[in-house]
Amino acid sequence: MIEPTQVREQLHALPEIPLPDALWRRVDAKRRQKLQRRKLGAGIATLALAAVMAAPLLLPMFAGADRAPGEQIAAHPPMRGEHDVQAELRALDHALQAAYDRGASDAEIAPMWVARDALLTGIPSGNSAIRRSRI
């Protein structure tokens, strides 16, 4: 039986076959094409990623483009800080939970829901998702 090391030695002992220049040019041209396609794909992927990352920042700019400048100011009242709104929202949620736990009447709970809804209308993004979580 022939061992793999003997076969390997015999193959290394064979003379190198000279390849035609045309073959090397074709191989090199294909390698360059593949490299160009890879660079182009990486560039497109980078631009797509940049667009996805920039979309949330640019969306408010384009959302009010169809309105006149005076309408934009009237449509967006001055907002409180997001931290303040979140803190007030948590406080209202705790008060509502405490009211439900002690069996408060609808007349006592209704104003808290109205205040919570008014607070949520001041949040610029995600307010519909927060409202849906209440249902």
Kindly name the structural category. Answer: mainly alpha
Shape: elongated
Low-confidence stretches: 125-135
| Radius of gyration using CA atoms only | 34 Å
Total of domains: 2
Largest sheet: none
Order of helices and strands: HHHHHH
Kindly state the number of beta strands: 0
Mean pLDDT: 79
Distance between the termini: 79 Å
Helix content: over 70%
Task: Sum this structure up briefly.
The protein has helices at 4-13, 21-63, 69-75, 82-101, 106-121, 127-134.
Question: Main attributes?
Answer:
disordered C terminus, mainly alpha, 77% helix, 135 residues, elongated
Care to describe what's here?
By secondary structure, the protein is mainly alpha-helical. It folds into 2 domains: 6-63; 78-134. It has 6 helices and no strands. It has helices at residues 4-13, 21-63, 69-75, 82-101, 106-121, 127-134. Helix 4 (82-101) runs antiparallel to helix 5 (106-121). The chain is elongated and about 100 Å long. The termini are far apart. Mean pLDDT is 79; it is low at 125-135.
Strand-helix topology:
Elements lengths: L3 H10 L7 H43 L5 H7 L6 H20 L4 H16 L5 H8 L1
